[in-house]
Design brief:
Helix content is 79%, strand content 0%. The protein has 526 residues and is mainly alpha-helical. The relative contact order is 0.08.
Length: 526
């Protein structure tokens, strides 16, 4: 047991290392406090609006949702990571012990975070129910969170078992991300499909003129969800059982899932570890002339991204996040028919896509991600301007793919007109401009000393500072666009004016970067 604790401590300190920069530490604390306050406010709103039974149900639902998001982000990179293979493979430690320690360390932070968020809920349970009921409710909440975690890991361990089938790691990561998102949104889509008529009726009657009328509308919506879930056969069966029997059943299910996950991952631990090591140690061959072809520099950027699964995951997230939000936006706009949103849907969609496609970790940290590869760019006869251009093209490609897919989805929903085409051109030009500006700070001050690839992004202040280079332009253009619409200039004419302005901005930035005397070499020498 002592040896297992040492392994667990090893993984905890390796993957959940505290950021070195005080600024990032403070920002993380502020972010957690902000999320906690939002969570507490939401739970108190439900408490004052819903019945005690509905409050109990939605607390379980909220807790499960937060747990699912945290386990999707944190534990996946721990449990299925092969970065520990080179360290532990030659030691006399069984694969099952390694995998078990990784699972425990992977779920520790999500469960702890949700437990902290549930502290106010416990006091509300004490006020609303007896002590025994409050303790049972919290125990049930914890067990359900653990079950959610183990269920997701079980499904992903099945996919991981067949990892060798995927010849390209990026395809495997894309399939895994799609599976995570699919499992997460499928219950929501099922609920919306089954209760579309009832939800539409509530939204038609929605009255936000007073707080009491708004509370009544929210209460009706909460009642729909609660009644729908309580009518499901699985929930009815679970509730019909004795409390002790229910807990025994859930504990047994968690234990079986835990054992199955360990067995499946451990059976492929050495095979997948050797596969990843073999890919990482493959010699990279360039063309004859290092400075001659931009393709070689693009190939170098591809090697850097594919050298770490974390970087590949960030690239995949950058591609699929905006299309996912596009689908959510279209579903919400179809259900919530607010006049202002309907009249300005194309404008809102364009800038939602723009911000989501630009606010990613790929464009702001291209030099920091190099790590050990950065020395070669300084010592070998590389062309700094082509290195910079390759990094811009790489991040720009990710953003462009994301934008184009989002607009294809948007048009499939029947939003095909001249203004949509203009907004697409505006979005693409602003994405180009943003990706030209965002790497500037990271080029001068890259964070190269990192032991874990997440540190190059998660613990890197460059991500925040890089926003100051490109974000003001997006905000100014967006405010100007909104102002023109507010003074009743037609949407088509407004889009044409913004397109001309954005085109001039893009041409100006490109000229200053590549054709003016103060080009990339001048920036580097500074």
């Amino acid at each position: 047991m002592k040896d297992n604790m040492q392994l667990i401590k090893f993984f905890l300190t390796s993957f959940y290392a505290k950021p070195k920069q005080p600024v990032i530490q403070v920002l993380l604390i502020i972010a957690f406090i902000y999320v906690a306050v939002q969570y507490f406010v939401l739970t108190f709103i439900i408490y004052f609006i819903a019945t005690p039974e509905e409050y109990l149900f939605y607390n379980v639902l909220l807790s499960n949702g937060v747990t699912y998001l945290l386990i999707s982000y944190f534990a996946i990179s721990v449990v299925f990571s092969q970065s520990d293979f080179a360290i532990l493979a030659h030691l006399p430690i069984s694969a099952k012990r390694v995998v078990m320690s990784k699972i425990i360390s992977g779920v520790t932070l999500p469960i702890m975070a949700v437990s902290i968020l549930s502290i106010p809920t416990f006091f509300i349970f004490l006020i609303e129910f007896k002590l025994g009921v409050a303790l049972k409710s919290l125990a049930f909440l914890l067990v359900m969170n653990v079950l959610i975690v183990l269920f997701l890991l079980f499904v992903l361990s099945i996919l991981n078992h067949f990892r060798s089938v995927f010849t390209n790691t990026s395809v495997y990561l894309l399939v895994r991300m799609t599976l995570i998102v699919g499992i997460g949104i499928s219950p929501i889509l099922y609920f919306l499909i089954k209760n579309h008529h009832a939800i539409s009726t509530v939204l038609v009657k929605l009255d936000v003129s007073t707080i009491s009328s708004l509370s009544a509308s929210i209460s009706d919506f909460l009642e729909i969800g609660y009644r729908f879930v309580m009518q499901q056969s699985l929930v009815e069966t679970l509730l019909s059982l004795n409390t002790a029997i229910s807990f025994i059943f859930l504990f047994a299910l968690c234990y079986l899932l835990f054992k199955a996950i360990i067995k499946m991952i451990a059976s492929k631990y050495y095979e997948h570890g050797l596969l990843v090591s073999r890919v990482e140690k493959t010699t990279k061959v360039w063309g004859r002339d290092i400075q001659s072809s931009l393709v070689n520099y693009l190939q170098r950027e591809y090697w850097i991204i594919q050298s770490e699964p974390y970087f590949k995951m960030q690239a995949i997230l950058g591609i699929i996040l905006t299309p996912i939000c596009t689908i959510i936006f279209l579903v919400q706009s179809s259900i919530l028919k607010v006049e202002w949103i309907v009249n300005n849907e194309s404008f809102l969609f364009a800038y939602m896509v723009l911000l989501l496609s630009c606010m990613n970790n790929i464009s702001g940290t291209p030099y920091s991600r190099e790590g050990k590869y950065y020395a070669s760019s300084m010592t070998l006869p590389f062309d700094p301007q082509k290195i910079y251009l390759a990094k811009v093209v790489t991040s720009l490609s990710i953003g462009t793919i994301s934008v184009v897919i989002s607009y294809i989805i948007y048009m499939l929903f029947g939003r095909v007109d001249f203004i949509t085409g203009l907004h697409l051109l505006i979005t693409l030009l602003l994405v180009i401009t943003y990706n030209l500006l965002s790497p500037l700070y990271d080029r001068k001050h890259p964070l190269l000393e990192w032991s874990n690839p997440s540190e190059a992004i998660k613990s890197n202040p460059t991500v925040l500072i890089s926003l100051l280079y490109g974000l003001p332009l997006l905000i100014i253009v967006g405010l100007l666009h909104f102002s023109l619409l507010a003074i009743n200039i037609s949407p088509a004419m407004t889009a044409l004016i913004i397109l001309v302005i954005v085109t001039l901005c893009t041409i100006t930035v490109i000229y200053k970067m590549f054709f003016e005397g103060k080009n990339l070499k001048g920036y580097v020498n500074n």
